[in-house]
Amino acid sequence: MNRISAPKEYLRAFLFPTGTDSWLTVLRLGLGLQTTLYSLSLRNDWNYLLAGTSGLINRNLADALLSVESRFVPRLGWLVALGEHVGLGEGTVLSAAWICLLIAGCSLLIGFTCRVSAILAWFLHLCAAKSGGFVSYGVDNFMTIGLFYLMLSPLPDRHSLDWHLRGSRPQNPQLLGFCRRVLQLHLCVIYFFSGFTKCLGSGWWDGSSLWRALIRPPFNVIGPEMLVRWKYLFPVAAISIWALEIGYPFLIWSSKTRKIWLICICALHAGIGLTMGMYLFALIMIVLNMAAFGPGLICVNGARISLPRWNALSSTR
Amino acid sequence: MRRKNVCTAWFALHFLLIVSFSCRDTLRLVTQGPTILPSSFKDFSQKAEGIASIALGQRLAASNPVRRALTTYLHLAGIETGYGYFAPNVPGTYKLVFELHYPDGRMEYELPQVSNAAAGLRVMSLLDQIGRTKHDALREILVKMLAQSVWREHPDVKTIRAVLESVTLPSVREFEQGKGASNQVLYTYEFSVSEERNEPEVP
To answer: By CA distance, what is B169's nearest residue in A?
Structure first.
């Protein structure tokens, strides 16, 4: 009996460590900022990219292709159809969706109506990402992941406006720990597969893939004339990138290597943002990493703000 | 205790899906890619990818409720794709140029345009999808939609010729020897006013 229950208890202790809501504060603030910047970055092109007939690409095509897979995935077509029932034009509905997304982002930033804002941000962003499937890229995928976890997490956190206005009580610490653990494990899978697939390509051994990534439009922020001066560093940098990613799930858990690994990963994303112009992508990855593994490393007023001990088993008993 | 059991069950399913889809997409990359693995691995990964797809219900009919439910959840959680960004190799890119022919014989060139860099990344993503799709009909529809958007900006144009090119990037050595990116025309499409007006509306 003991033999059977030991692994089960171990797993349960690992999945439900006692935690504070500091990580949730980081996730809420980060995703609030991300959603706000995402909305602002598309303010001039939102209707043009997502319109049904008068835009860059007919949104109805993406919606129709999505319907083949599933009719229940949120899309802007639902909102437009709803708007038509009450006499609102497509442009008005799209503009309203953009404004609501911006408001949801700002609300998350200040922590006002956290749950509703998280659900609204997740829903509207998902609508835009799916209806604009032809013009979406990695950042949309990671925003969906982040907002999905935020929406399911035990909000509000103690640094939110909601907490102070409504006098909320502390959330179940094991549920907080569980939600954080899911995010941590998901990131481990992401980095492992990202690194593993890179190391399968010869270009990520000799550095040519890094060179190509940096000179490939529209990521060519730095001119090739300048890049070529650093050509001897490309193989080392390329191998370092996938080694860092593959090593993530193994070395992020140990207190001895966590700090350096987290710093390196965040520096990698900051580097991608600066050298390839993918600022929103860099921000979302840094936010997810800092929420998952940051609290406990960062000190506020000289005191650590999260788990006193990292070890999952020791923290639950 | 009951809540913990529910959470554990959800986590098990959620994590299984994340890992399974990541594995399947990795196998797909090995099948499609050139990789450093021996070519014999391609057959293996092709078979393994097929098995993984069957296990994940991806070979069921599109109308199958299990597949639909699974697909819906994957989209809601944002876990419907793998994480092989820029892997196993960084591909070349694509360029779409519109030649605008006016009734007076004038000709202008136009590229798909948006207002800032953030939206520009999205347009490049679109061009990559147009260039990579294996479905000729879809490619043509997408190019036609882009041509229509150009037409709205230039209503007096008589015909539009869309040229889709693949852009091959130079290696470091080639760049040092003075070679730049080289373009190769993949597809050309011609759209005229009458054809544009007669075209059935895209779903």
So the answer is: A212
